[in-house]
Amino acid sequence: MTIRTDLDKIPVTVITGFLGAGKTTLIRHLMANPQGRRLAVLVNEFGTLGVDGDILKSCADENCPAENIVELANGCICCTVADDFIPTVERLMALPQRPEHILIETSGLALPKPLLKAFDWPSIRSRITVDGVITLADAEAVAQGRFASDPGAVDAQRLADDSLDHDTPLAEVFEDQLSCADIVLLSKTDLVNKAGLEHARTIVTEIAPRPLPVLPMRDGVIDPQIVLGLGAAAEDDLAARPSHHDGHDEHEHEDFDSMVIDLPEIADPDRLVAAIRTLAREQHILRVKGYVAIRGKPMRLLLQAVGERVRTQYDRPWGTQPRQTRLVVIAEHDHIDATAIHAALAGQVAPRG
Ligand SMILES: Nc1nc2c(ncn2[C@@H]2O[C@H](COP(=O)(O)OP(=O)(O)OP(=O)(O)O)[C@@H](O)[C@H]2O)c(=O)[nH]1
């Protein structure tokens, strides 16, 4: 273990990437393989339901106890810097057992650059340095052109020129996240073949404003020595990380909406999954996550959907908690039809009695 004095800056790794790219899965892996470091984790979610924080707290151990895992829910880390983010980081630094490395998971819709700028704040700058920005990109989604439909036309120049802003909101977030990266991890390699992986790599390379290491990753498994300890001091290197929102103090999240759906017990998990797949196709849903109460099952079902890919897992008994289904749904604002989504999910509720 490294010996640290109070004069040493605490390294922070920012883990970013679009909704559902696998950020929480990577952090779980890093928590399980901390390389002797005492960790703290700050997780930011777009929706109001703290699913990621809950998942991470269930992995707490002596290297990263539950009090070292904090959530900034219902927001965008980049817009709440002064009010929420800085005080939270200061709280982490004041823990009796000072963390030796802090991992920050941004929400999948956050632009990482305003966050990097926060590390320039006087109270933070002298005590923390951004060791690196790790950007995850879902290899299958990228290869299918879900972010940049015409990769040949993607020109890094456009990032610097507001007048050429023809991007979709999805593409803008994706490009900003790549622009900030020190390393790009192409996640979910099990869902693509070799050609798909190479295609995704080409798209990322064309979008990135400078040459970057692009590494494949499955189920969050990567040698922590590759992603931690980069010493990038990203806060000193902002100009090399262009953003669509450079020059704007504020940015809007109106392009995306989240809704929380509360329901009683669900009859059949397979039919619920099928209904979510149909919704993802027809309502352009980007992400669904939360907990489901299945009639007759003592365990709660953790449900995660990224586009049409749905994963479920019974994670723990309900115990004394009310058996209630609660899902957060995130979609593009122009496409979301809250009534249709609610009706389709309510159709899966178990009949009374
Ligand atoms: N097939 C496959 N699924 C994966 C892999 N990594 C993560 N997933 C799944 O993808 C879903 C989203 O993973 P998360 O780690 O929650 O993604 P995230 O980026 O933290 O999601 P948000 O915080 O909502 O943006 C989960 O169902 C994971 O189990 C992988 O390598 N392969």
Please outline the major beta sheet: 7 strands, parallel
Query: Using DSSP, what is the number of strands?
Result: 12
Corresponding CATH architecture of the largest domain? 3-Layer(aba) Sandwich
How many individual domains? 2
Give the strand order of the largest sheet, numbering strands 1, 2, ... along the chain.
3-2-4-1-5-6-7
Helix content: 25-40%
CATH class annotation of the largest domain: Alpha Beta
Average predicted confidence as pLDDT = 87
Distinct ligands: guanosine-5'-triphosphate
Q: How much beta, percentage-wise?
A: 15-25%
Q: Could you say what the CATH topology of the largest domain is called?
A: Rossmann fold
Give the SSE order as H and E letters.
Answer: EHEHEHEHHEHHEHEHEHEEEEH
Report on the architecture of this protein.
- With 353 residues, this protein is an alpha/beta fold.
- It folds into two domains: 10-240, Rossmann fold; 256-346, 2-Layer Sandwich (Hypothetical Protein Yjia, Chain: A,domain 2), CATH 3.30.1220.10.
- Helices cover 28% and strands 24% of the residues.
- It has helices at residues 23-32, 51-57, 81-93, 112-118, 122-125, 139-143, 169-179, 194-207, 224-227, 269-283, 338-346; strands at residues 10-17, 39-44, 69-72, 101-105, 128-138, 183-187, 214-216, 256-263, 285-292, 299-306, 309-317, 325-332.
- The strands form two sheets. The protein has a seven-stranded parallel sheet, with helices on both faces. A five-stranded antiparallel sheet has the order 8-12-9-10-11, covered by helices on one side.
- Helix 10 (269-283) packs antiparallel against helix 11.
- The N and C termini lie far apart (58 Å).
- The site of guanosine-5'-triphosphate (GTP) has 21 residues, from helix 1 and strand 10.
